[in-house]
Amino acid sequence: MHKFFLQLAAVMGALAVALGAFGAHALKRIVPEAVVNIFETGVRYQFYHVFALAVIGILYRDFSNKWMLWAGNLFIIGIILFSGSLYMLTWLKASSKEGLDWVGIITPFGGLAFIAGWVCMFVGLYKTAVI
Fold it and tell me: For the residues of 75-110, what is the DSSP string, one character each?
């Protein structure tokens, strides 16, 4: 499982770089600065949790337990829900779609997944610590 987490972190990291470049160059010409900020928040949190996922992939070799699996999966879910909803919100605003701002309600669930992932990481390390 650690290899899967590392591979996915690499793919999501590459995607974050590509999306960040798009946001820094092309997106600024399409939407107002406030919308660019929404998009950049998604990229930033994706990047943070790509590194967290890579750390889980590395740690899982020595601390293979259900808590580490949960942590990795929750980071993936968080990226999809948190960053994905911000990317979708940006796209909706860029395409002038009306009445679809409800997509923003998904974002906090991604944030909760991130928090739960960090808690699971802690518990996974704690449970296997040698005292």
Answer: HHHHIIIIIHHHHHHHHHHHTT--S-GGGGGGHHHH
Domain residues for the domain of 76 are 2-126
Residue 12 domain flag: yes
Query: What residue type is 117 in one-letter code?
Result: G
Q: What is the pLDDT of residues 29-76, one digit of tens each?
A: 888 999 999 999 999 999 999 999 999 999 998 888 999 999 999 999
Contact between 57 and 9 (Cβ < 8 Å): yes
Q: Scan for tokens 């740690």, then name that residue.
A: 59
40: CB partners within 8 A, 6+ apart: 20, 23
| pTM greater than 0.85 (yes/no) | yes
* Domain-embedded: residue 61: yes
